[in-house]
Amino acid sequence: MDEALWAFGRVSGFVSLALFTFSVLLGILNRSGRRLLVLPRFSISLLHRNIALLATVFLGLHVGSLLLDSYAKLNVIDVLVPFLGAYRPFWQGLGTVALDLVAAVVVTGLLRHRLGQRTFKAIHWLTYAMWPIALAHAIGNGTDGTGKWFLVLAVASVAAVGGAVIWRLSATFLETAKAREGGLR
Amino acid sequence: MSRTLHIDWTKCDGRGLCTELLPGLLGRDDWGYPVARRGDRTDIAIGRDDAEAADEAIKLCPKLALRVVGGGAGSSGRPAGC
Prior knowledge:
The complex is a heterodimer of chains A (185) and B (82). Chain A has 185 residues and is mostly helical. In chain A, 75% of the residues lie in helices and 0% in strands.
């Protein structure tokens, strides 16, 4: 049973990070106001949200299975307070920080209509901190984190998200950027 | 009083989600902003067929710029479940 929990803890962490990477990319694309091939804007918005929620479910399974597993020596305090862990406390602590940030982003996301746009947005920006912290946690703490295939995927993810952020900051990011510049004529 | 979809122009940023969900009610100008196909440009009458799509648009508007005004009991302008 312990073996199974350990294996599940590892794979669920990987799945969660992969889904979060997808969601971050969709979130940035969504902000541009552009469609994705045949996908309308509202579909991208829903995909962004639902993939993030699915990632959060896998994050819950990741933490839950490792809590029950005796090998990881994880306890309830480590889930909430970073850097106190028994095994690689710094890298595990990054995971705790990412978990706390995910909790804040998800809760404020679900309550967006009640909190108002400004609060929602301020917290939602924390995602830009959460994602690299989660990736660092995976590399530094994961059993496969420094494996070749994982590092190749990590480099590809950093390139994708980094490229999306650079695009996000560029002048032509918005679908309507050209028109709003007055370049219609 | 019939239900209308109210666009808060101080919040709207012309992202276009509402125009996709309500193509019969809203067109889009060159800058991306929604344009009512007929009638008032800020308070757009919602027909029976568009009620559900209008609720979706309110929920999904990335700038929270939409709400429902008027209509029967229970429509407070805040979408159910959000």
